[in-house]
Amino acid sequence: MDVSFLGGPQPQRGVGVVAPFDFALDRELWRWMPDEISLRLTRTPYVPVEVSLDLARLVSEHETLGEAVRALGATEPEVIAYACTSGSFVGGVGGERAMCEAMNTAGEVPSLTTSGALLEALEELGAKRIALVTPYTESVTQSLEEYLAEAGVTVTGRAFLGLTRHIWKVPYRSVVDMARQAVVGAADALFISCTNLPTYDAIPQLEAELRMPVLSANQVTMWAALRRIGAHAVGPYQGLLLDPPPVRHVPRLEVRGEIPELHEMPEIHQIPEIHQIPEISGIGDIPGIAELGRMEPVQHMQDVQPVQPGEWAQPAQPDAPTEEQEGWT
């Protein structure tokens, strides 16, 4: 079959992603991408260190990031995201900003990090108190809490797994269980940390169960990257991705002063007393009845115009229930 007339594939806009060497969830990132966007991924060099604060510092060195960003430049991305939560919060808010500046300089395109995208998403939702889920050790989790505190975000509850490797193998069931443990106080949102932790399919379930926005590391990274280029992430039933996002803070109504008694309300005096309402002794006393009597009656049935076929839409007939539907209770 000759396909030369097709002219080749449609142009694709590019989103560059720098990920740690052990990142294993490329497919999950793609699920947030609209059809006209392509991901261009690269990874930092391998270092023989398990997931820890030391690893977070190693994979986020400015020289390492600069080389990765320059390598991505050959594919001409419109934006570059550093997809690593711990690597972007380990230096605090100032460290995260410095990383973005180093990436901007190396690639000459807008750049962002997962931890910076998290703060952007929390601001978008108006969330100041969050429940926190991580697969990390306690020390790494504590470092994330310190980063959030520096940005003015309070952690109301947390749950962590204490893992130092193979985080991408954690099942959704464990993620959901941790979320239930973390939501112990009043929170505006839940954040699930680590770009190597699967979350895409768990987000809608948790939002429905917990009745709050649920954010994850990969979700906020892709959301923020696409937002930079005027595109929208694809994620059914994910509150952050609604446009505009749902309103989470409904102000409480405040009553100023005392509520007046019923007889003190000015509108009440406009209602006539019951004895002022004219007495209706017969049907002819009802307003409008006399006018109806002056209408010309229909003399013959032939004066009534028949309805032509097709002038009225017929009600749709319900489909016959399937065997499966008949078994519903």
How would you explain this protein's 3D organization?
With 329 residues, the chain is of the alpha/beta class. It is 33% helix and 12% strand. It has helices spanning 26-31, 53-58, 62-72, 85-89, 92-107, 114-125, 138-150, 172-182, 202-210, 217-228, 289-293, 323-326; strands spanning 13-19, 37-43, 79-82, 111-113, 129-134, 154-160, 189-192, 214-216. α9 (202-210) links the parallel β7 and β8 (214-216). The longest helix has 16 residues, at 92-107. 34% of the residues are buried. The model is unreliable at 247-256, 298-304, 306-318 and 321-329 (pLDDT under 50).
Count of alpha and pi helical runs: 12
Radius of gyration using CA atoms only: 31 Å
What structural class should be given to the helix and strand makeup? alpha/beta
Mean pLDDT reading: 83
Question: What is the strand arrangement across the widest sheet?
Answer: 2-1-3-4
What is the helical fraction, as a range of percent? Answer: 25-40%
Share of residues in strands: 5-15%
Question: How is the biggest beta sheet arranged?
Answer: 4 strands, parallel
Q: Regions with pLDDT < 50 over 5+ consecutive residues?
A: 247-256, 298-304, 306-318, 321-329
Compute the number of strand runs: 8
Task: Note the main attributes of this structure.
four-stranded parallel beta sheet; 33% helix; 329 residues; 12% strand; globular
Kindly summarize this structure in a few lines.
The chain is an alpha/beta fold. It contains twelve helices and eight strands. The strands form two sheets. The protein has a four-stranded parallel beta sheet with strand order 2-1-3-4, sandwiched between helices. Strands 6-5-7-8 form a four-stranded parallel beta sheet.
